[in-house]
């Protein structure tokens, strides 16, 4: 029969290296420690210790059992803390977002985790479709996507917005649609939609992104500006991508009359109650952006 106490005794034995010290730490008798180990060996059907007089070394099965036991108790603690939805400073946060927002949101959350060691963070970078599928499957509690989601098992609400930037090489001297067409565009997932929206709002003669030479493509938005910095084309990206890019000094954002934004939405399973720790992280990030951008990234009114 599975007994967590046997695993706990075994962990302590491995860590102390002594039956006597294990008994003292767990306030047991030494024969009691030996009995727990024998019971665990009987349950697993494997010898866990190679006994050499009063000393012992772990067998291969023993090493694997020890690794499993550590993981077992760590997951137990995470699960126990995750049941407390009212806790602000402990529990697991499982979320996913596209790279555009994740380039800044993930480091922000890690900073919060440093200040609140009881938090654990599992953060995935993915595309909208993958994020929705993972929230549906329960692999994430929260998804952040760039398009509204309509699904009977999911709730979707506006959360945040970031300005879009038309980014060109630092030495680019043009300013018209023809100059951009001569330069060509660097693509990424969703990039054509962003570029089309921003160009349509600012250039009356814009027709379609299909008229622009495609000079390259990457599925990692964080790498787009590398190509732009090399003079290979232009791109339209979220301001977050520009602000976090190591190439921001080798590129520039053109000043445009009409602003456009990347809109971000929160996706959760229908009826799920979002723990307070998520609410604090999301509100904290938005507040930070408001201070940084002096009005950019404002809250969307629902």
TrEMBL record:
InterPro entries for this protein: LysR_HTH_N, LysR_subst-bd, WH-like_DNA-bd_sf, WH_DNA-bd_sf
Keyword field: DNA-binding, Transcription, Transcription regulation
Entry annotated with the keyword Cell wall biogenesis/degradation: no
CDD domains: PBP2_LTTR_substrate
HTH lysR-type domain location: 2-59
Family matches, as Pfam families: HTH_1, LysR_substrate
Family as reported in the entry's similarity comment: Belongs to the LysR transcriptional regulatory family.
Protein name in UniProt: LysR family transcriptional regulator
Organism: Halomonas pelophila
């Amino acid at each position: 029969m599975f007994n967590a106490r046997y695993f706990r005794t075994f962990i302590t034995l491995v860590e102390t290296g002594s039956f006597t010290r294990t008994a003292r730490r767990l306030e047991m008798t030494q024969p009691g420690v030996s009995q727990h180990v024998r019971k665990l060996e009987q349950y697993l059907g494997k010898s866990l210790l190679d006994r050499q007089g009063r000393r012992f070394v772990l067998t291969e099965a023993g090493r694997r059992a020890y690794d499993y036991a550590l993981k077992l108790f760590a997951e137990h603690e995470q699960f126990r803390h995750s049941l407390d939805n009212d806790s602000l400073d402990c529990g697991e946060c499982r979320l996913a977002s596209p790279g555009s927002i994740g380039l800044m949101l993930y480091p922000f959350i890690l900073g919060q985790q440093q200040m609140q060691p009881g938090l654990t963070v599992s953060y995935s970078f993915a595309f909208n479709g993958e994020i929705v599928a993972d929230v549906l499957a329960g692999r994430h509690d929260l998804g952040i996507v760039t398009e509204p989601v309509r699904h009977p098992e999911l709730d979707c609400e506006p959360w945040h917005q970031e300005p879009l930037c038309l980014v060109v090489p630092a030495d680019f001297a043009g300013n018209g649609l023809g100059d951009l067409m001569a330069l060509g565009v660097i693509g990424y997932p969703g990039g054509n939609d962003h570029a089309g929206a921003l160009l349509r709002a600012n250039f009356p003669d814009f027709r379609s992104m299909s008229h622009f030479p495609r000079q390259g493509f990457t599925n990692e938005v964080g790498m787009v500006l590398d190509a732009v910095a090399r003079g290979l084309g232009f791109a339209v990206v979220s301001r977050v991508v520009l602000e976090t890019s190591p190439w921001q000094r080798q590129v520039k954002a053109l000043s445009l009359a009409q602003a456009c934004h990347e809109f971000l939405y929160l996706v959760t399973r229908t009826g799920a109650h979002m723990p307070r720790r998520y609410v604090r992280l999301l509100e904290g990030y938005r507040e930070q952006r408001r201070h940084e951008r002096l009005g950019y990234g404002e809250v969307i009114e629902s």
